[in-house]
Batch of 2 targets.
Target 1
Amino acid sequence: MPIKIKRDKRYMREYDRAMMRSAFVSLFWSVVSERRKRGFKLQDLAKALSKDKSTVSRWFSGQPDAQPNWTLNTVSDIANALDLDLHIEAQDRITKVTYTPSGPVHVRVNEPRDLTESRGPRLVPMYKEDPTTLTSTG
Amino acid sequence: MAIKGGRLIERQPLRPMGNPRRRLLLTPQIADFLDGQVEGSDFPRWPADAVVSRYIGGYIICVSLQGKSASYIDLERLQGVDEVWTLCFRSPKPGWRLLGRFAARDQFIGLRLYNRFEINTRPKYEAAAAQVIADWHGVLGSDEPIRKSTIDDYLSGTIRNANQDQT
């Protein structure tokens, strides 16, 4: 009787890793493929990274289990080679609060204001239950 | 989500994705097979789930429009048959092929699932393709699949064209 595989925590860890690898590969390929329309070549990227063209070509092919497991340094190097700024953010799966390296993201809402307040939209925290995020600028 | 009177189910990625670019619709039987709910199925497998999520999320997939057998191709239009495509799963062994057609851009309808040995010769895959076409009419009636000439006509999102020089 074969062992039945379940989508348990270990399974999801492998899945999440594959999707993370794929997200970076996909992100950089979307840049490369757009630039290729203007004459950019994979070998230009390979040269900038001091890698073989075949290695770089392999990065952007293959199924999720075969995609490169880049270090953060490599991710940074590729972003530099492509002259890109990376923006990092994370979202809490339960509360849906979005975080950036500089803290939680606040959304702008337009709501009736007390006229004594200064003009402009208020910044309201998305995660209202957390009193530490209850900062607003009027 | 059940579609066409429950004859198709929209497949969702294992984790919610911000702005899904593409849709994958499957027969309930195939959905159950991919979930390991059918006797004899070696699914689920995380690489297969990742292929599905990459497709739905608009992430990079390697596509062949003109027939090129290579292990890195994710989605391929079969040659010599009328608009039958295969989405490839390398895992579980021996590798599986989801055969179907595009109802619209970014909307793939998966109708038959074969292990790769079941369709590894031309007569076998032609027979499988004929079955897919018959299933298509059974499920979608007189709707026709899209018949186009470029990958961009079939798919948005990030694509690697397997038939293009990748220098």
Target 2
Amino acid sequence: MKGFLAIIGRDLKLATRIGGDALTLVLFFVMVGAIVPFAIGPDKAMLAKLAPGLTWIAAFLSLLLGLDRLFRNDAEDGSLQLFRFSRTPLEAIVAAKVIAHWLLTALPLIAATPVLAVLLNMDMESWLRTVLSLLLGTPGLVALGAMGAAVTVSLPRGGLIAPVLILPLAIPLLIFGSSAISGQQAGAAMLFLAAISLVLLAIAPFAGALALRVSEE
Amino acid sequence: MTLDVAPKPNWFARIANPSQFLGWSRPLLWPLTILTAILFAAGLYFAFLDSPPDYQMGNTVRIMYIHVPNAWLSQFVYGVMAVSALGSLIWRHPMADVSMKAAAPLGAVFTALALYTGSLWGRPTWGTFWEWDGRMTSTLVLLLIYLGLIALWRAFEDQLRAGRVVAVFTLIGAINIPIVKFSVDWWQTLHQPSSVITPDGPRMPGSILTPLLVMMGAFTLLFITLQLKSMHTEIRRRRLATLERQRAAAAEGAK
């Protein structure tokens, strides 16, 4: 448990001391939302209708963009080797890294949703629903991303392959995530979203650790 | 240690050892090819000449004889890949790697054909090429997973190490298979539910069921033949890569 918390603390400290990364991701997230009105025209009613899906896609893309950082730095400076042989099991370390990554990438995005809400003409209720669905869905997305990042950690061009691998698997999250905001059975979709996230979070540490062990051989 | 105390290879070694595998599977290739051709000839004869047109769909029902076998194989091939992935992870079975690699492009082609024939069939009967229905969407996702796996294989330089990493991801992607299978029962939208294997027997007359089953057998045999052939090719490709590496190393040493 001590090692688990130490990993989370280490990752948070590293990210905040180097700085900039979380802010850049938030900037990217807002920009994706901001260019949409240019592409489809500033029709306010239509924007409000599309807003939930657009917010999800923006979050999706931003999270994919940040994935590569999850294990790559550790693999390059050799920390991954030490993790493999440390007393804390590798599974727990992967779980800790998933939590730290969620705090560093997904939470800032959720904090930035009010900006998108204004830009895309969301009302208060759908903004609240968006925040709730992102809170429930992004942990699953980060868990999937961790599996993708672990599988591609030994590849020099892994940054491109990982999103291609996990995008098809992330489609259920996207379906339930956006229907939890505006669908007809929003409550049920929200529950499904939470269930999928929990399943993915349960699988990710084991699959991720297996992939890390295999690719280090 | 002399040769005569070496144990007789058991069935596991006969699958796992590349030369043993080549030894027993190469003679199978021609008979399998001929059998596949015979089944295709019979199946196509039944499907196009000796089966009645459907009372609602007319002759378009004949698309089914191509569509259903491809759709069945799209899932079956993933099953073969998932079992091979287990073999590769648990027993470090060298032929399991080869089988996984050979199956991925075959599965992708069968899945693409299932989607293609499905949309050709959908146009006259449902009035649309594509609908975001549960089974179509999940089959499309299956195709994307196949393509992602092929991309992952190609991203590795060292194919021996690639095998185990791809195996992990194949098993992660296997989550999608039950979703494809049961999608028609969970979301009853456009695609009809399964009608061959149901609790109370097949829900179609024998005149349609026979050609369908023959075609499914023909396509399955086609897959097995192609799978064996591409596994042989892959073994040769790996031997060639090893030989080239040895020669390069020898040339390096001679300097």
